[in-house]
Amino acid sequence: MAIKLKATKRDNLQKSSTKEIRQRGDVPGVVYGKEKDPVTLSVNSIELLKTVRDHGRNAIISLDVEGGDTLDVMLHEHQIDPLKDELIHADFYAVNMQQEVDVEVSINVEGEPEGVREGGVLQQPLYAVALRAKPGDIPESITVDVSELQIGDSLMVSDLKEGRNYELLEDENTTIVSVTPPEEVPTEPEEETDEQPDILKDPDEDEDEDNENS
User: Fold this and answer.
1) Per-residue pLDDT tens digits for 188-199
2) Per the structure, how many domains does the chain have?
């Protein structure tokens, strides 16, 4: 289901107009799309950030543009002022709800592996997975349950559940998570000393020396 946001068309592209937009708490943006001319507009920056925080980067946003137009879009890119930590620009991509798009979706790990309770270490080399789906079928995230993994076990892309409404684009042999054995602490070598060991003499040698001296 698309999240609705109000938008205002932006015909004046001068810097002074852009500054006014930001001063009133909005962010200037552009909507791009196949077979569609770019549309310049502005939206409330706080509402946009809240939408991304609550529903993820792949959320479908229905822009209710002043004047009666409605645009189904996805946030493509956004720029943040590093000094003020404020949203200063947003690029949207117009989507057709009946056409598939390629996106990346984050992976969430759920549970504590049995192998970790036995001393193993959980490794997660893959934090997001590429997939293809219609905009309305894009999951906010993909959750994998790792609670039954033992030491030496792993979950691959091929282990993700079937029956989904999307096509995975990752290599099915890619590891998502694994439980590795605990690292062995190397034993410290014994310290070497410069002292020479005592040499045991043959008692007969001492007797021979006494005889020579007498």
Assistant:
1) 655 555 555 554
2) 2
